[in-house]
Write a structure and sequence with these properties.
It is a single chain. By secondary structure, the chain is an alpha/beta fold. It is built from 20 helices and 20 strands. It has a domain of 92 residues. The longest helix is centred in the last third of the chain and has 20 residues.
């Protein structure tokens, strides 16, 4: 139990489980025999708390994109309510667990219920800190009145406040007197607004003042969809007073066009993620004013017009220098084991470059550079510069997993030399993810002397998820992969595994990966392939993985190193 608590405690660092007694429930006449009823209360508590939260992956994969309908069901609260009705023992457990109720509150649900019901639910939370979510329709007087009164009453108990304000007129504001008060338990505040008119931008002053009593306690600041230059508070003065800040997100905002955001360097020792989805110059101004700690992640996104209207490349060189600083500090501890780089068209000339992934005990952060560029010709040199100056100059000897994709992007030979430099800078790579264009680069290395020094410890090749392609494209990709496997054998560095698990097209998720491959371990799905209709409506189309498996099956000779046990 002590070991379990030590593992799970980072996930629930702000919540301390309470010892509960089962003796209050009379279950002597109805003893449950299911194994779950034999778990101790601390483990049940962790399971129940985990079930209260569903991430974006769940909302999209399980529920589609119709999230508004799902939100209207107030899932966290219904989860607690359902748990309390499973059996008498669990009901006693949930009723005696104020943290479960305190972490399932929905402001919209509370506003719609009667006062007696609200009083009963809030009584169950006892003195626990509150995690509050939901939305408030500002046009509905009863909801607006309840939200302001509830916020006034329970402000000192709130730990996380995540509220959407709908239909908020630009002249209305949340009274500063409600927010500019001591909040000893507040860690995260996220108040965002949405108007019925999508083209109308709102100024929503989330921060009542840079010296509000609770500012120094924040671990996350998220500013979304507002005009920051019209707010009375400068972001610089806020960040100066947030030594515990871990996450800073500025999303779809107009930021400080007429004045510099940060007048001096600000040190944020616990910062893990900076997410800036603003214009080019605002991103530079903010990044120039923050001293990044080791292993901090960066997500920056800007549009084509920002690059196209730049007078010269000076701003870009400044950005490269800043990114290089982040990368060097990120890799300097020598503990990062995974590096992901994605280069490809994304939604109308949108290019994406993803760099190291950092896992924290409570969240998964990634380091990204997201760019929307005016033309492929003008950006090709800049992307090459980013790879060579930012990444290859770092200490990459600790990288064991390399994911490299240049999907649907023409002109990859322009980066051939930079990618070879990257390969040579990663001598410890054991697992490589390579798409068709990367396979082409690896294939072209046959004629180069560097081939013998690239990935000496590589044992697994992963073919990533792809789209349905023509047979000619499929045969070309398969030939390059087979050639790479053969060349590895010839230089006495054979591979042990070919991973086709995620390699399927934009169709049904069930893909069959054929058996009988010549002395190569293959990760595969065992379901029937349904991508090719019978009779086939398009006989010249096939899924990536089935075609590769067929080609490998037809090969004679041992081009891999057969291992009975995978290390």
């Amino acid at each position: 139990m002590a070991k379990l608590k030590s593992i799970c405690s980072p996930l629930f660092r702000t919540i301390q489980p309470t010892k509960y007694s089962r003796k209050s429930c009379d279950t002597s006449q109805n003893v449950e025999t299911s194994p779950i009823f034999k778990l101790c209360n601390d483990i049940l508590y962790l399971i129940f708390m985990h079930n209260l939260a569903f991430d974006e992956h769940f909302l999209i994969s399980k529920l589609g994109y119709n999230r508004e309908h799902w939100k209207s069901r107030y899932w966290p609260f219904i989860t607690v309510q359902t748990i309390s009705q499973v059996c008498r023992e669990w009901r006693c457990f949930t009723l005696d667990s104020p943290f479960l109720w305190a972490n399932s509150l929905n402001i919209e649900l509370l506003a719609r219920k009667k006062a007696k019901w609200r009083k009963k639910i809030m009584k169950r939370t006892r003195k626990a800190t509150l995690f509050v979510q939901g939305s408030v329709d500002w046009e509905k007087a009863y909801m607006r009145t309840f939200f302001l009164s509830w916020l006034n009453k329970f402000w000192t108990r709130i730990r996380v406040l995540d509220v959407e304000i709908r239909n908020l007129p630009s002249e209305d504001k949340i009274p500063h007197g409600l927010l500019n008060r001591p909040a000893p338990n507040l860690e995260v505040i996220y108040i965002w607004s949405r108007n019925s008119s999508p083209c109308r931008r709102l100024c929503f002053p989330i921060f009542p003042g840079a010296h509000a009593p609770w500012i120094s306690q924040l671990s996350a600041i998220i500013v979304s969809g507002c005009h920051l230059e019209s707010c009375t508070v400068n972001l610089s003065s806020i960040l100066e007073n947030t030594p515990l800040l871990e996450v800073l997100i500025v999303d779809h905002c107009t930021v400080f066009h007429n004045e510099k955001c940060l007048q001096k360097k600000i040190t944020l020792p616990k910062l893990k993620l900076i997410d800036l989805q603003v214009d080019w110059h605002s991103s530079l101004v903010i990044l120039q004013g923050i001293i990044p700690p080791p292993c901090s992640s960066l997500l920056i996104s800007f549009h084509a017009d920002d690059l196209e209207n730049a007078e010269n490349d000076a701003d870009f060189h400044v950005l490269v220098d800043i990114l290089k600083l982040y990368f060097v500090r990120y890799f300097s501890p020598g503990t990062t084991t995974e590096l992901n780089i994605l280069l490809g068209l994304r939604n109308n000339n949108r290019m994406m470059m993803e760099t190291p992934i950092m896992r924290s005990p409570f969240r998964l952060f990634g380091q990204y550079l997201n760019m929307q560029v005016p033309s492929l010709k003008t950006i090709r040199t800049k992307i090459s510069s980013l790879i060579s100056k930012c990444i290859c100059s770092c200490n990459l000897t600790s990288i064991t997993i390399l994911k490299l994709e240049i999907s649907h992007f023409p002109g990859y030979p322009a980066w051939n030399d930079d990618l070879v430099t990257l390969f040579l800078a990663c001598p410890s790579v054991e697992v490589l993810t390579a798409d068709r264009n990367v396979a082409q680069i690896l294939h072209d290395l046959d004629m180069r002397a560097e081939q013998k020094h690239i990935f000496p410890k590589l044992h697994t090749l992963i073919v990533p998820r792809g789209t349905i392609s023509s047979l000619s494209f499929l045969q070309e990709c398969t030939e390059m992969i087979i050639t790479f496997l053969k060349r590895r054998r010839e230089v006495d560095m054979p591979l042990w595994m070919l991973d086709l698990t995620d390699c399927y097209g934009n169709g049904p998720e069930c893909i069959k990966y054929w058996d009988g491959l010549a002395d190569v371990f293959v990760w595969r799905r065992r379901n029937a392939c349904q991508l090719i209709p019978k009779p086939p409506a398009h006989p010249d189309w096939a899924c990536h993985s089935c075609g590769i498996a067929r080609a490998l099956d037809s090969q004679s000779g041992d081009f891999t190193h057969f291992q009975k046990e995978f290390p």
